[in-house]
Amino acid sequence: MPTETLTRNPVIRLDPADNVVVARDDIAAGVSIPSEGVTTNHDIPMGHKVATQAIAKGDPVRKYDTIIGFAGEDIVPGDWLHTHNVLMDDFQKDYRYAQDYVAADVLPEAQRATFLGYPRADGRYGTRNMIGIFITVNCAATVARKISRYFDEERLAEYPNVDGVVAFIHEQGCGMEQSGEPLDLLRRTLAGYIRHPNTAGALVCSLGCERNNLQKFMEAESLATGKMLRTVTMQQIGGTLNAVEEGKAVIREMLEDANRIEREPASAEHIMIGLQCGGSDGFSGLSANPALGKAVDILVRNGGTAILSETSELYGIEHTLTSRAKSEEIGRQFIDRINWWLDYNKGRDTQINGTVSPGNQAGGLANVIEKSLGGSKKGGSTGINAVYEYAYPVTEKGLVLMDTPGFDPVSATGQIAGGANLICFTTGRGSCFGSYPAPTIKLASNSTMFTRMEGDMDINCGKVIDGESSLDEMGEEIFAKILAIASGEASKSELLGVGEEEFAPWQIGVLS
After folding, report:
1. What is the spatial distance between Cα 118 and Cα 460, in angstroms, rounded to a whole number?
2. Rounded to whole angstroms, how far apart are CA atoms 390 and 376?
3. Residue 341 vs residues 189, 230, 468: alpha-carbon distances, Å
4. Collapsed DSSP state (helix, strand, coil) of residue 422
5. CA end-to-end span of the chain, whole Å?
6. What is the reported pTM?
7. 61, 70 in Cβ contact below 8 A?
8. Cα distance between residue 436 and residue 439, in whole Å
9. Which of 320-356 are b and which e, b meaning 16 or more Cβ less than 10 Å from the residue's Cβ?
């Protein structure tokens, strides 16, 4: 039977040293790929891998000239490579601590890009101007919800400089250890949101008898009440109804002051982005993630900050990051967190132990190493200047790492608590994530999904796969969108009202 030949190159080669290429479209069995000198032996789904040379059983499979696994059987050119024949195994890594560190070439202040931001007393600038309602314990959740829902679009119309009144609800605060890391982490996260440059004012609601005691929380985080930071305790004020009415009155007072704050030109150095990916596919590491990395490089040159997280989804390629660390100490801090995650997940059916989610697999990702390889490309090419544990305030400029889980809402919550005033979120399968008070910009990895879910997607990075844009051009487009949304343009998730339910502090420790 004669083989079918396609006029458009159906595959993408990522590196000359690779022994696989990625299918640009669905490819039927028997299709000749002249650029690689192979003919497909199987149907190859879009985003999946095709072998371009023989790979003996046990030999490494290379993508982006990085080992993503080992052949589980003898593989011949033209074979489909996926979970059935690409196995994950441990191998010796050269961490090359700090040997490839590249300091950012930061532009002079007068040459940096600008956006329109909300000025804060401490010198930071917000991309949004919101009032947050926080709870010390889930027992106060209904009070916070009722207060926030009262301030609907109609009631906020007379406050054009206020972007919303949002309740940040969590499930913790009691039934947990009364001291130690779990409580410290919760308090640190809440305080990070209260101090956030996008938070103009905050109301903290408590029940009164919870383990996350209101007074101890305020003392531990050095928070002092004032005109724009108020508290209400249900047991002291007389219950749910009284607490709701008191909360409404407090928010009305804050709205007047918050509305007096107006946007003004600010340097892009005040932009801090949390980098996220979710619902990844085989194109995420080829288009959206490296294009976002190009935008990160531009932001860093303009004095800004980007936070790369999801530690469990950086496993397997950690040596490519330790080599970019500013110092050996910073590199070892990251490896300490990787080792913590390996111990934490020992014996568990989790992706750090190899198997990625069904959606990731359907999109072409064989294992966590391949997923991590693509995900790390969000961080661009500059050096890594610091490593932070979850929700700690980020003070370093440039590219930094923050230790978070891979679960998007929990990870983004930690980044926002650390000070991120924007989230950039890449997706191949179609995540519908949003966040407050920092807006989320969603980047689609392929045009098919972008067209299907355009109501949720802000940018189509699939143009890289289609050959319509280069990565550099895509990076410029993303950076322009970052400046626009930082200046007040609504992201798709904001237009849909997505973000209030996605506040999810990392819940660790016992539940008693």
Report:
1. 29
2. 18
3. 20, 38, 40
4. strand
5. 67
6. 0.94
7. yes
8. 6
9. bbbbbbbeeebbebbbebbeebeeeeeeeebbbbbbb
Per CATH, 4-87 and 115-264 having the same topology is answered: no
Q: Give the list of residues 6+ apart from residue 155 with CB closer than 8 angstroms, or none.
A: none
8 A C-beta contact, residue 47 and residue 20: no
Could you state, in order of their start, the residue ranges of all structural domains in the chain? 4-87, 115-264, 267-489
Q: Which two tokens stand for residue 442?
A: 């969603």
Element holding 134 (H helix, E strand):
strand 130-135
- Annotation: CATH topology of 115-264: Ribose 5-phosphate Isomerase B; Chain: A, (3.40.1400)
Q: Which CATH architecture has domain 4-87?
A: Roll (2.30)
Q: Which residue, 388, 418, 411, is CA-closest to 400? A: 388
Per-residue pLDDT tens, the chain, 512 aa: give them. 344 544 679 999 999 999 999 999 999 999 999 999 999 999 999 999 999 999 999 999 999 999 999 999 999 999 999 999 999 877 778 999 999 999 999 999 999 999 999 999 999 999 999 999 999 999 999 999 999 999 999 999 999 999 999 999 999 999 999 999 999 999 999 999 999 999 999 999 999 999 999 999 999 999 999 999 999 999 999 999 999 999 999 999 999 999 999 999 999 999 999 999 999 999 999 999 999 999 999 999 999 999 999 999 999 999 999 999 999 999 999 999 999 999 999 999 988 887 888 989 988 988 888 899 999 999 999 999 999 999 999 999 999 999 999 999 999 999 999 999 999 999 999 999 999 999 999 999 999 999 999 999 999 999 999 999 999 999 999 999 999 999 999 999 999 999 999 999 999 988 88
CA distance 326 to 330: 7
Q: How many CB atoms lie within 10 A of CB 57?
A: 12
